[in-house]
């Protein structure tokens, strides 16, 4: 998978306006899908066999495209609970659906996972979805991810992981908000600005915030090993964890 502008052009061409807007609003979020794709590629290169990858919260397909582009053999099942989002992904990624490499499930993450067999997925990859979950729901989803992964399988999540230093976290989120104002006032999009700010309150609320230390501990308690948080960029980070063999 290449980097840089040709890669951006591919995303822009396939995902269209959504990707262009995400790049302007939150370039680190756009970058994170590529980081997830690279992590999946790393796992696939080491495994050296076709993989069964499950994605949670595929949205319009930005992360799905990064995963699909990481390897030519893997099969991806992309789960999302929102039909409007998933229908856009279906349209954007039609060529992979037609090739039999991409399947969609319209379902909520927990419900979809409970319908999957034990030890059936090589990788569970996701971006910017798990932080939206309320704590108890997130815990139940993580237990299901552990059950569904094969021994040696990997959980790969590029997401908002709030800093354990609460003062630093607040300062970072304040900077993020300033960036939203700069871009969206500049583009005369007050409605979108309102949506992003409202959503941010949800992300940072006591019953949702996905704080680094607690999250890594939660993975350990679920049974995962080799738990790592890498590539932190402000409130964004990549977390990987392995189901022991
Ligand atoms: C912010 S988008 C992320 C899209 C893409 N992965 C990215 O990084 O750009 C989050 C997606 O998760 C989906 N989602 C949120 N809660 C969910 C749940 N409980 N089950 C399944 N999908 C969910 C939303 O519908 C949305 O499409």
TrEMBL record:
GO terms for biological process: methylation. Signal peptide: none annotated. Residues 53-153 form the Methyltransferase domain. CDD domains: AdoMet_MTases. SUPFAM superfamilies: S-adenosyl-L-methionine-dependent methyltransferases. Pfam families: Methyltransf_25. GO terms for molecular function: methyltransferase activity. This is Methyltransferase type 11. It comes from Methylotuvimicrobium alcaliphilum (strain DSM 19304 / NCIMB 14124 / VKM B-2133 / 20Z).
